[in-house]
Amino acid sequence: MTTPQQMPALFVGHGNPMNAIEDNLWSRAFLSMATRLPTPQAILCISAHWYINHTQVTGSSHPKTIHDFGGFPRELFEVEYPAPGAPALANKAVSTLGHYGAEVNHDWGLDHGTWSVLKHLKPAADIPVLQLSIDYTKSPKDLLEIGKVLGSLREEGVLVMGSGNITHNLRDAMKHWGQTDPATPEWAARFDAEVAQAMEQHDNEYLATLPSKAEFSLSHPTADHFLPLLYVAGASRPSDRVSFPITGFDMGSLSMRAVLFE
Q1: What is the pLDDT of residues 214-247, one digit of tens each?
Q2: CB 100 within 8 A of CB 231
Q3: Which of 64, 193, 202, 215 is a plausible cystine mate for 109, CB 3.0–4.6 Å?
Q4: How many alpha carbons lie under 13 Å from residue 181 in its C-beta half-sphere?
Q5: Contact 116/43 with Cβ under 8 angstroms?
Q6: Closest-CA residue to 100 (of 135, 62, 64, 151)
Q7: In angstroms, rounded to a whole number, what is the distance separating the alpha carbons of residues 150 and 147?
Q8: pTM of the full predicted structure?
């Protein structure tokens, strides 16, 4: 038997759901990034859009495509991402997490934080995919530890992927809807740069302090799009090389930065 190739850990800024069906700067960036990724045995995704008070892992063998948004064209609601699930891996992940009280969930599927990115990274939808919920009752340090535990799955050929955005203030971003190349506000550029520096330095302790800082609420009125980054940082290793396959801002202040640990 061959030993599975060790997989990277990846954080992706998923941005606007329309990136799933449009030919634009960001969808092309996802396609380009796909060429850098090895083929995994399975993908474990932590999406900003499954934000609950438990740690759960999807256990369906055929996870449904969830269209968790409104006000978009019918074409977006018709997208299906029919990747198989990974029930055995879900059970193993729950067992591995032990005292964190993780559970298998058979009702949730793949929300747009997952499929809008994977539609470009793995368009054939032939790799098993499961999601891990963000448990908002846990502290940032707990999320890092959960990520560290799940990081062991990288050695078994599992790509650990977080999907959110390093800055995500939709009220500010929507001011620039439809504008061409709006200016990025200083607070967004500063926060994005600070996070990037911490990732390069593997400074997970600093990342864990950010949600408690006063300026955090400007970049994240709610923490859901930031917290997937903590799981991925936890799954990384000090020996990993850090790179940023995608950088830049959409709608002025929405960071689309991707972070790859390999």
Answers
A1: 899 999 999 999 999 999 999 999 999 999 999 9
A2: no
A3: 64
A4: 1
A5: no
A6: 135
A7: 5
A8: 0.95
Hey, how many other C-beta atoms are within 10 angstroms of the C-beta on 197? 11
Residues contacting residue 32 through CB under 8 Å, at least 6 positions apart: 245
Contact 47, 231 (CB under 8 A): no
DSSP 237: -
Strand order in the sheet with 158-164: 103-105, 56-58, 129-135, 42-52, 158-164, 9-13, 258-261, 242-246
Please give the structure tokens belonging to residue 194: 């600070």
pLDDT at 203: 98
Instruction: Give CA–CA dist 58/84, Å, rounded.
Output: 11
Find out whether 155 and 189 touch, Cβ atoms under 8 Å. no
Q: How big is the CA angle at 38 (ends 23 and 51), to the nearest 5 degrees? A: 65
Longest distance between any two alpha carbons in the chain, whole Å: 55
Q: Which of 75-84, 177-186, 196-205, 236-245 has the lowest mean pLDDT?
A: 177-186
Distance CA 259, CA 160 (A): 12
* Pairwise CA distance, residues 174 & 159, whole Å: 32
SS3 (DSSP) at 106: coil
